[in-house]
Amino acid sequence: MFKTRSVTRKEKEGLQLPEDQSQSSQSSFCTMESMLDMMEELKKELAGINNSISNLNTNFNNKLDNFMKDISLKCENNSKSITLLNNKIDDLEQRSRRSNLRLFGVKELQNENTDEAVIHILNDKLNLNLTINDIERSHRVGALSPNKIRAIIIKFNNYRIRQLVYSSKSKLKGTALVLREDLTARRHKKYMELQGVYGKSNCWTRDGNVLFKVNADVKLYSFDNSN
């Protein structure tokens, strides 16, 4: 059997921690608890910051999307305005050429008088009775080149005389001479493109308008919706 005995006072005192050591342990525990509380607070603050950043990103992206849509719409409207303005300028330029014709195939001579040459050719080839007074002015177009005969642009005094001449151009068939309307660069480019697609015999111009034939249908090319 085990024998029991009472613990002496001295032994009890030996089992107890010193007072300063106990206070130190209690202080360390409080410090740890305080640090844990601070960490929890920091976590909450970080969560709040992350949430704020997320909201800022969302707001920024929304504003950026709206800004880009607004810019895109303005660019589209500006593009339409520019196209409309270009169409009006082209139309005005073509109207200013309304009384003009271009004559191709006239051999160039040194010190030539294009007015006299034009009147002679038109009267002789088209059986007309024009005078110098029917022409406001005429001149060669483009830079002088030894390998190319430059066209002569003719500005008639009025549209009626110009139409009389142009309506007789079929009489030049079989000769080296060609009469064409004086088109803007834009209209001339499209006219040449359509000739390449549908053939020369299926493309022509009338008062600055470009027409072409597809099978049996005659179509008018619209410059209003083109660049």
CATH topology of the largest domain: Alpha-Beta Plaits
Helix content: 40-55%
Please tell me the total number of domains: 3
CATH architectural label of the largest domain:
2-Layer Sandwich
- The shape, in one word, is rod-shaped
**Spatial order of the strands in the main sheet?**
2-3-1-4
Estimated radius of gyration: 48 Å
**Between the first and last Cα atoms, what is the distance in angstroms?**
117 Å
Mean pLDDT: 86
Strand proportion, as a percent range, falls in 5-15%
The CATH homologous superfamily of the largest domain:
L1 transposable element, RRM domain
Which structural class should the secondary elements be placed in? Answer: alpha+beta
InterPro entries: Transposase_22
Coiled coil: 32-102
Biased composition (Polar residues): 19-28
Keywords: Coiled coil
What labels would you give this structure?
227 residues; alpha+beta; Alpha-Beta Plaits; 3 domains; 4-stranded antiparallel sheet; 7 strands
